[in-house]
Design goal:
Two copies of one chain form a homodimer. The first copy, chain A, starts with a strand and ends with a helix. In chain A, α4 links the parallel β6 and β7. Chain A has 306 residues and is an alpha/beta fold. Chain A has two domains: 174 residues, NAD(P)-binding Rossmann-like Domain (Rossmann fold), CATH 3.40.50; 127 residues, N-(1-d-carboxylethyl)-l-norvaline Dehydrogenase, domain 2 (Orthogonal Bundle). Helices cover 48% and strands 23% of the residues of chain A. Chain A has 13 helices and ten strands. At the A-B interface, α9 and α13 of A face α9 and α13 of B.
Chain lengths: 306, 306
């Protein structure tokens, strides 16, 4: 299968390397660290995992890559305005677009640009750190769940999932992609946000403060209410499940906090802004999310202005 | 009138200097900058105002001061655990205690320690900056409103207000002190909090961001609801009044933000924690205040741990 990986950050590098090591013709669009990746290849490490891709099909532009069967979109959503220009050279008649990006809004953007028929999305449950171009360490988890945009799974959905599985990527197929996106936001909205707003602390520090723990729990309930109003039914028992899972994570820093500490732009609109707007439009009251969104947007703006 | 000023920060220095210049026997408890105050005296400046008190009755302990007619409590609420030890030497049979401190809880603390009968409170509407020990500049406003703790005004309330007026301090008498404390919190809770959480920005920057402006407005409504549940009736029209007043303030930094920038402890419990606890106990839902309190408490703890 000919696969383009658009964006060689941690997510793109990790899954792209696995797909390449599994025998696919994988082409990476690499914007920063191109020479390093060309020279050193890719190196993936993790629990029980040590994969090298010495010869990387790395490209500086999508024109050089040309048409692919599958285009994996793995840039930060903060760069989504580039997609209208980046993707067309990769798209043939039967090309599928799979966004592995965070939050809400990317499938709709891709559908508007390239037709809803092509668009799939995936959710990555993985803790990664990219230490250098092409070098990624996986700390925990690793599975992804993929689905169709606005429709149930079809043959190709399962074909891609099988290919991923063959390459050692745990990959599930979800019936309702948007429902699963909301379910993931039930965790990401409070924990990615509070770890920043509370001064740059990890998930264990959130849980050890009764008031921050309460803030996380209540925000989870608020997000579930927002999802339900938008037509995606999540049970409130998801809160206790996710809090329990968080207690097993130890001193975890969500990727947004790591980005913030490194002065990188935050995915404010995908993770907080778009869910807020959709929930408000559906009639939900979202006081905690509104306040968090406003504060994070300001922090991000100040940091990017420096 | 023999008056003790407990705490020679901006508030204590400003009002104490005015009361001294007006002819009262004012004794200052000065903990930092004692030598400077003794040597240079006090200097108050402001629009149409330039007052010097060359000879200051400054003391290092309340034992040296002895009994007074009026004790003005002007330390930060974060030091309130010192009051049980600090105040007794100042208190005679007919001594009145007047706390000019922020937020909720100080009157109750003083009443528990020294009897409810003695306790009065005041609200300061003033923008001050202390540039050195004894040196305070007033930027704006200046009036205070005083009242009795848990009862309507009585003769002494008006006597003190008259004395303040005679010394050039605009001083009103309020019928319901706790109602007025809540009214002030309608502004302090959102603006003192959001200016910190949004990254250290002034009130004009809050107003210029539609999402932060909305966060302030909605938090004001939440505080009003909390006050009403606690039995203190505030109209929701207070929101528009206070937002309008904020628009005239220009690029104002609330004192809490200035403290935060200077690494000083924040009055987390008086301004956010105590109102939250009282409103929740009265059955109000306070989602915005709960989240803000939790985040600010964490920021303050991190800063004080440095």
């Amino acid at each position: 299968m000919r696969i383009a990986i658009v964006g060689a950050g941690a997510i793109g590098t990790y899954y792209g390397a696995k797909l390449a090591a599994g025998g696919n013709d994988v082409c990476f669009l690499v914007r920063t660290g191109f020479e390093t990746v060309k020279e050193n290849g890719l190196h993936i490490t993790g629990p029980d995992e040590d994969i090298r891709v010495p010869q990387v099909n790395a490209y500086r532009s999508t024109n050089e890559i040309g048409k692919c069967d599958l285009v994996v979109v793995a840039i930060k959503t903060t760069s989504n305005d580039l997609l209208a220009e980046l993707l067309p050279p990769l798209i043939g008649d039967r090309t599928t677009l799979l966004t592995l990006q965070n939050g809400l809004g990317s499938e709709e953007l891709l559908a508007g640009l390239f037709g809803t028929e092509r668009v799939m999305g995936g959710l990555c449950f993985i803790c990664l750190r990219r230490s250098a171009p092409g070098v990624v360490h996986r700390y925990d988890y690793g599975h992804i769940n993929i689905g169709e945009h606005g429709r149930p799974p079809r043959d190709r959905t399962r074909t891609f999932a099988n290919e991923f599985q063959k390459c050692g990527i745990k990959c599930g197929v979800v019936d309702d992609l948007m429902l699963e996106r909301w379910r993931k936001l039930v965790w990401n909205i409070p924990f990615n946000g509070l770890t920043i707003l509370a001064g740059g602390i990890d998930t264990a520090a959130i849980l050890s403060d009764p008031d921050l723990d309460e803030a996380a729990v209540q925000l989870m309930h608020e997000v579930i209410d927002g999802a339900n109003r938008c037509g995606f039914q999540l049970e409130s028992s998801a809160v206790e499940e996710q809090m329990k899972r968080t207690r097993t994570m130890g001193q975890y820093k969500p990727s947004t906090l790591v980005d913030f500490e490194n002065g990188k732009p935050l995915e404010i609109e995908a993770i907080w802004g778009e869910p807020l707007r959709r929930a408000l439009a559906a009639g939900a009251g979202m006081p905690r999310l509104q306040q968090m969104y406003a504060a994070l947007k300001s922090l991000d703006r100040l940091e990017q202005a420096q």
